[in-house]
Amino acid sequence: MAEQWARVNAPLRRAGTPIGPFDAAIAATALVHGCTVVTHNRKHFDLVPGLAVEDWEAEEAA
């Protein structure tokens, strides 16, 4: 899990778009387990390549 966290976090920090350690941990966990992140905070999670993200609140309003 720590290695996946580093693979998520390091490129974003280098690009100047860090997402914070807790969001990086959530993203890493989802990637390791092949899960989708359901959040209203797409701003950060959409920056993570290969991460499936859904915002059920936005889909309801659409």
UniProtKB/TrEMBL annotation:
The keyword GTP-binding does not apply. Keywords: Hydrolase, Magnesium, Metal-binding, Nuclease, Toxin-antitoxin system. It holds the Pfam family PIN. InterPro entries: PIN-like_dom_sf, PIN_dom, Type_II_TA_system_RNase. Coiled coil: none annotated. GO terms for molecular function: hydrolase activity; metal ion binding; nuclease activity. Its cofactor is Mg(2+). Residues 4-47 form the PIN domain. Belongs to the PINc/VapC protein family. This is PIN domain-containing protein.
